[in-house]
Specification:
Order of helices and strands: HH
Distance between the termini: 138 Å
Structural class: mainly alpha
Radius of gyration: 42 Å
Length: about 100
Amino acid sequence: MASDRKAAKDNSLDEGDLDGDDEAPAIGDLSETLKQVKDETETELAATQVAEEKSRKNFAELTKTLEEEVATRQAAVDEVKAAISTSEEAAGKAKSDLLSVN
């Protein structure tokens, strides 16, 4: 019986498993690798979230600046339109005055 157990144990050994006790360290190595991958992923996620928040703030600032510029330019356009209207009105009145003198 003891020789049967030894034969079974010998048959169950992998090529790299010389002492038959490598399964526990392999599981430990796997756990460590998974923990390392998890830690790296969490670090990358945190860095990505920080970068995303920075981009979000930059976009909000840019949007605000552009909206202010559009409003300023629209006010300038409105002023020019008002000046044109006033000039056209004055020109029309001057033309009318000239025609009535002749």
